[in-house]
Structure formats: structure tokens, C-alpha cells
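Chapter summary example.
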Amino acid sequence: MTQHNVSRILNKHFNVRVIYTGNRYRGKQLILVGRKRDVEIASWVNDFLNREFVRFWKGYYEKNKQNFVTLKDRASYYYGLELGLSEKLKQAEEKEKAVLVGDKAEEIKNRYALVNVSLKRKINDKVGELFPSLRRGRHSNINIRPNSFLSGKTDGAKINICRPLSQGQSNNRLTV
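The structure predicted for these 176 residues follows.
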């Protein structure tokens, strides 16, 4: 459950595409497709967020276990964490774009948007090439528990992601 919430964050904000392969009998794998440096960052963020989501949930559970916390509460809390963090990341992206000032600001913003669109297209093309029979998985709707969801959303906005320091520079090639 946690991994799916984290995967949606990675897909939306970290310039990668998350692919699941395998099954419960042969084992499941998570594959990240994108530029090498984006995959390295997304891999680190994936591990970090999976740990953070569980840590935050345990804290919430300990505070609220006398209120008969259920699996629906956990799903709602994780969904809230996902949305809270996603909103925070979106605001950070908007701030980054707003830093561009001067006469050429609009031109730079448009160029930035074009680069993002072409990168997503390249990633989708690569995914189509590597996984020609890929199909979308089922998405189940969750019954939102308002208290758990709102607490998760508040806590999600508290999560801070700092890029790890890496050795050397990575190139911009698409990798799996």
C-alpha cells in the first residue's frame, strides 16, 4: 500500500516512470525508467519515503490507537500523506519557476515546459519499447476516513526531501 502512494509521487514529481513487474508467486519488482540522474534520485527518494510513511503512520497509530484505528484509517492516512507531500512539492516547483525574472522569464518558462513535455514523451517511448505489452493495473477506490486523511495531509506537508550527495555527475541518457 505504501509503495503505491510513493510511486505516484515519483511519477508526478521526479521525472521517472514507475513500472511494476512480476507477481506474488515469482516475486514483484519495481523498475524506474528515466534519465540516469533522475533514476538515482528517485531510487533514493523511494527508499526514504517508504521509511518516512511507515514512521509517520506508527506515530499516528500510537496517538490514536484508543480510537479503534483500522486498515481503512491507514489507507486514508497514507493517501493524505501522499497528497500533503505532493502539494508541497508542487508549491516548491512553482517557487522555482517564479525565481525566473526579467524580460526573458516567459521564454525560459515556456522552454522549461517544452523540455518537461519532451522528457515525458521520451520516457513513455522508452517504456513502450522496453515493455510492449504493458497494461495499466487496477486502481481501487478507498473509503476515505476524514480524521485519518486530514492528519496524513498535515503530516505529509511536514516531510522534507533533500537530495543526497553523489559522487560525480551523471549523464542524461534514459536508463532502466
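To summarize the output: The mean pLDDT is 81.
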